[in-house]
Amino acid sequence: MYLMGPRPGEVLGSRWSEFDLKKGIWNIPAERTKTRTARSIKLNPKVQDWMIERKGLGASEFVFPSKDSRGQSPVDRYNKQWTRLMDACGISREITPYYLRHTFLSECAKKVRDGKLSLVLITKYAGTSIEQFEKTYLHVEGEDTKSVSVLMELEG
């Protein structure tokens, strides 16, 4: 989630059939996205390598199968595993997996502000609206738009 920015539910419910590991593409179907819009995202090379390694380890159709269901359903709760991970890392503050997506998108917002990344492309990639991205990550406010009105000589 930190390296690519998907939502936790998209990751946990992912199926091997959604991935083209040779091309490094993840095709997330519409029924599994918050916005009900299918999207394809490029895998981070580290994630791609990890997935190629992991694919041969089990027979489940799910990337993260539930042990309780013998791999017939995806992991639906990650609280125990997440808590163990936080403990192992010595992190006592309450941090949820969604923070990984938020951090990824916050870094993308810096690149949007610097003109290194397209706002339209990152919102399509992340499966969020431009308005929501601006509000949550760019923090665009009235004072920010003052420079636009000055530039266009529309002051007042």
Per-chain topology:
Elements: H1 8-12, E1 19-20, E2 25-28, E3 39-42, H2 45-55, H3 79-88, H4 98-113, H5 119-126, H6 130-138, H7 146-151
Antiparallel strand pairs: 1-2, 2-3
What does this structure look like?
- With 156 residues, the protein is mainly alpha-helical.
- The chain folds into two domains: 1-96, Orthogonal Bundle (hpI Integrase, Chain A), CATH 1.10.443; 97-156, no CATH class.
- The chain has seven helices and three strands, in the order αβββαααααα.
- It has helices spanning 8-12, 45-55, 79-88, 98-113, 119-126, 130-138, 146-151; strands at 19-20, 25-28, 39-42.
- It has a three-stranded antiparallel β-sheet with strand order 1-2-3.
- The radius of gyration is 19 Å and the shape is globular.
- The model has no long low-confidence stretch (mean pLDDT 85).
Alpha-carbon distance between the termini? Answer: 44 Å
CATH 4th-level superfamily of the largest domain: Intergrase catalytic core
Order of strands across the widest beta sheet? Answer: 1-2-3
Strand count, sense and barrel status of the largest sheet are: 3 strands, antiparallel
Architecture per CATH nomenclature, i.e. the level-2 architecture of the largest domain: Orthogonal Bundle
Query: What's the number of extended β-strand segments?
Result: 3
CATH secondary-structure class of the largest domain: Mainly Alpha
- The helix/strand class is mainly alpha
Indicate the low-confidence ranges by residue numbers: none
Number of discrete helical segments: 7
Instruction: Give the SSE string.
Output: HEEEHHHHHH
What coarse outline follows from CA principal-axis ratios? Answer: globular
Q: Residue share in helices?
A: 40-55%
Which band does the percent of strand residues land in? 5-15%
Radius of gyration from the CA trace?
19 Å
